[in-house]
Structure formats: structure tokens, C-alpha cells
Write a structure and sequence with these properties.
cytoskeleton; elongated; 12% strand; cytoplasm; 4-stranded antiparallel sheet; cilium; Radial_spoke; alpha+beta
Length: 190
Amino acid sequence: MSFWLHHTQYILPQGRTSWWNPNPMPELGEGGADEELGEGEEQEVAPKGGPEPETGPPLLTPLSEDAALEAVPAWSVRTTSKIIEDFAFAVVRSNLWPGAYCFSTQGKFFQNIYLGYGHKLIEQSFSPLPLPPIQQEYPIGPEIMEMTDPTGAEEEQWRIDHLPKPKPMPPAEAAAEGGEEAEEEEEEDE
């Protein structure tokens, strides 16, 4: 790994290759410069440049100097074929950034490629819980169950079956109504 070198700029923890100061103006102390100090008190001075600039390793640093991940080296090397060595590629894979590869053909052609998700290696991979089955989201019942629409004849039969029924009349009122009906019939005959 001492013959493989970093030939591009290092990506800082800030996510950039050149450091950017997020707080260009230094902050003053709480009381400002007008506050008088008592005996034995020291003045706290805010750093003049703000946060300390981040720096990365210099260019052409060998891969062997990269930090290892516990027991795993930072890079692993393999060849694409052991049968036809004249046409085999040398592949260097990053173990810190899964998906970062560099390959070479007998030292004549070099290329870098990244086929990853943009996340560093996580020792314990995160996998979210699967979604519950859709059928259990809403219980099946009469409000949700699909049904066929009734025909016009079925609707009419249902309406007739659910008409309010006439109230039963007491026997005294029924007899009085029967006498009135007989009188009305006689008047109609005349």
C-alpha cells in the first residue's frame, strides 16, 4: 500500500476540500470591553480567528498511512483475475467509505470510481423496521367492505319493507270509525 498515493485533496470533516470559517467575526465576552474587572479576576479573551481551521493530510500521502478501522485496514487490494494476469486489473477498495474503488491496468491507466451512498462505514448497520401489512391498517367491516350496488327493484322493495306501519287503533275508536264510514256510504248513495 505504500505505492498507492492520495493524489486529490482530502475531504475535511466539514464536507469541503477547502476550509470555510462559519463565524468570520470573533465574538466578544459577555460584558464587553467597558466592564471593569475586580481584583484577582482575569479577563477571558475570545479566540481572534474563531474556530480552528481544519486541515487534512498533504497530497501524495501513501495509503499505508491512513488510519485503520479497529482490526480492519483502511484499504484492501485484490486483482480481477489470477488466470490471465497480463490483462488483470489491480483494484483497491476503501473499507472506510464503502463503494470507493481505484483500479489500474499494469500501471498504465488509473481510474477512481465511487458507487456508494455517501456514508462512512457504520459498525452496526441501521435498518429501519418494515412497514406493517396494509390490510391491518384498517379493519375490515361494513364501512370499508366493498359491495355491489343494488338494482332499482331491490331499492324499491327495501323502501316498501321499511315504510312506517300504521298504528293499531283501540277497539272503541275502531267501532266509532266503522259507524262513521257506514253513514258516509249512505250519504254517497243518496
